[in-house]
Each structure stands twice: as structure tokens, then as C-alpha cells.
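Private note to self, pasted from the team thread so I don't lose it. C-alpha cells:
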């Protein structure tokens, strides 16, 4: 295969970055991907933009996320170590994200988790992710399997539909004052709290979003009220991720997400995909994920968000005519 000249080592970005640092790496990565990603280059060449003189982030072209459904979005030529696919219903067309080096993903989600929550070894992880476990190619299952392994605690593990066993485990962990994270797909968390009530105030509950065709979509405030009552917690956590990304944003409270230093979200005009909006506004979500070194780091998603001046954002839902898929696709009452 061709010996590509890398602009920097992918692992270099997994650290605190100033605004100038982020722009520097983003510009280098844009040039690298424009030159070595045929799909991205063809898309950029169709746009009426100056591709040679990118000085700010908003000048970088963002690839529509739908391209991951129809093309192999790969920077450089390689045989994938692993390929992740999007979730959704059986009838939907799935996206595929081909990874040249899965250790980049491992580094990204490990550092991202540590950035917001500390060391994985401090927690027991309980993963209630039945629909993800029942299919191949889930990046979320890969991430949770790694975090469970890193926790090195025998109480950590995956749960399918054995809610009684999960209830008993939660009771045991509460009695032993064990720091615990429960991450679950939304419909399964609702199924659980309809059968069992858990008063575990110290528990960190993550909902990954989406009913996956199992239940009607809900307003987030209503969903969170049910889950808070069912688990006896004051807040519900969440993560914003998808198979086309290798980094995740996290919400520790009230659907307000923050990104790790190597990831940014920018609002765009949903009616004009080339127009990036001022930060304190609402619009469609563009993502820059510097961990997406060998695919595309600049993605125009189908999600809608509200953006705040402190770099936080809220997920409001989906654009019209887009499929329900991925994580955090519940309706936000605006």
C-alpha cells in the first residue's frame, strides 16, 4: 500500500487543546482527508467554496452523514480492522464506519470517559442494551465491553432481558456503597422501571436514546421524570454518539452536552447546509471529531440542536424526513 505522509499522529489530539490548537489540527486533518479520501474530495470539489484557503473552522466542508450509508468513507487505502454499523429498524439502510486502527477509537472513548467521569476502574458498569447485543457491529457494545474490562470488577456485565437479575445486582451494589453506572437503551430502561423500583440516589443512569421501534417516542422531560422516579436519582445522564463518530459528548444533567477537547459541534442552517450559524442559536448539528482520522472528521448530522455560548448544546430531535437511528433521538419539548 501507499506510504502516506501523516500530518501528525492521531493520538496527539487526545489532550487539552486550546482554540488555536484545535484549529491547527483541524486544518491539517482537513488537508490530509481532502487529499486522501476520494469520497470527501469528490464532495468538496462540487461545492462553491475555496478549498485551498481554510482559515477558520466554518470554512471546512462538512460531509453529509448519509454518505456513510452509500459509500465507503475511508481516508487512505486500507483493509478495515473492524467495521461498525448504525442501529435502527430492520427496514432502514444502515451506515458503516470502517476503522483502519481500532486503537484510535479505544483511546478516544477511554480518554473521553476519563475527562468527564474519572477512571473506569472506579466503577461497576451495568449495560442494559438488548437491541445492541442482538446485532453485529455495534460501536457502543465495543465501547462498553472495553470499559467493563477496564473496570476489572466481577459485578460488571451486560444484561439482555433478565430484569430480575439486574434488580438484585443493583440492590447488592447499593448495599455495598459501590460506585455504579447503569447504561441502557431507553425502551429497556422504561421496561425495567415499570417492573421494579430502585431507590439508589448515588447510581449514575445513562440513557442512550431511541425506542428502536419498541415504544412511541417521548418528550425528554417526561422520560427523565419517569426514570428519575424509577431509579431514585436526581438526574439522568446521557451520551451523544453514533457509529460514524469515534468520540462522544456527555450530558451530566438536563440534556446539556459537553464535548471532550478533540471534538466540537457547530450549528448550521438546516435549509442551507453550507451555512454555519453563530454559536448561541439553534440549528442542525455539525460535528468535528479529530478522532475520525481515517474516515471523515467533518460530518453534517441529521440532528437538530440548541447551542449555547459556553460550548454546551442540547439535542432537540431529528430533521424532517430523516430516519430514526443512533443514540439520543428522543423528542425535546421546546
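Design output:
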Amino acid at each position: 500500500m501507499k506510504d502516506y505522509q501523516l500530518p501528525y499522529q492521531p493520538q496527539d489530539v487526545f489532550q487539552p487543546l486550546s482554540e488555536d490548537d484545535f484549529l491547527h489540527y483541524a486544518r491539517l486533518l482537513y488537508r490530509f482527508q481532502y487529499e486522501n479520501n476520494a469520497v470527501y474530495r469528490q464532495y468538496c470539489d462540487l461545492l462553491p467554496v475555496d478549498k485551498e484557503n481554510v482559515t477558520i473552522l466554518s470554512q471546512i466542508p462538512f460531509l453529509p452523514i448519509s454518505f456513510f450509508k452509500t459509500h465507503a468513507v475511508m481516508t487512505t487505502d486500507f483493509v478495515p480492522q473492524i467495521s461498525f454499523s448504525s442501529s435502527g429498524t430492520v427496514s432502514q439502510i444502515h451506515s458503516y464506519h470502517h476503522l483502519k486502527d481500532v486503537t484510535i477509537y479505544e483511546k478516544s472513548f477511554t480518554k473521553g470517559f476519563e475527562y468527564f467521569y474519572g477512571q473506569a476502574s472506579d466503577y461497576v458498569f451495568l449495560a442494559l442494551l438488548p437491541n445492541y447485543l442482538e446485532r453485529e457491529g455495534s460501536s457502543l457494545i465495543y465501547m462498553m465491553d472495553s470499559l467493563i474490562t477496564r473496570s476489572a470488577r466481577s459485578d460488571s456485565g451486560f444484561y439482555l432481558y433478565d430484569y430480575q437479575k439486574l434488580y438484585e445486582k443493583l440492590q447488592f451494589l447499593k448495599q455495598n456503597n459501590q460506585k455504579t453506572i447503569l447504561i441502557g437503551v431507553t425502551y429497556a430502561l422504561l421496561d425495567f422501571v415499570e417492573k421494579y423500583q430502585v431507590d439508589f440516589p448515588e447510581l449514575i443512569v445513562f440513557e442512550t436514546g431511541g425506542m428502536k421501534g419498541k415504544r412511541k417516542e417521548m418528550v425528554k422531560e417526561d422520560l427523565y421524570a419517569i426514570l428519575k422516579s424509577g431509579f431514585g436519582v436526581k438526574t439522568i445522564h446521557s451520551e451523544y454518539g453514533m457509529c460514524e463518530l469515534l468520540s462522544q459528548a456527555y450530558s451530566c444533567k438536563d440534556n446539556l452536552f459537553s464535548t471532550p477537547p478533540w471534538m466540537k459541534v457547530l450549528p448550521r442552517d438546516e435549509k442551507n447546509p453550507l451555512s454555519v450559524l453563530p454559536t448561541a442559536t439553534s440549528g442542525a448539528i455539525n460535528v468535528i471529531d479529530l478522532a475520525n482520522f481515517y474516515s471523515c472528521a467533518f460530518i453534517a448530522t441529521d440532528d437538530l440542536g440548541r447551542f449555547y455560548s459556553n460550548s454546551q448544546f442540547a439535542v432537540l430531535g431529528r430533521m424532517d424526513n430523516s430516519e430514526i437511528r443512533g443514540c439520543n433521538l428522543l423528542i425535546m419539548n421546546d
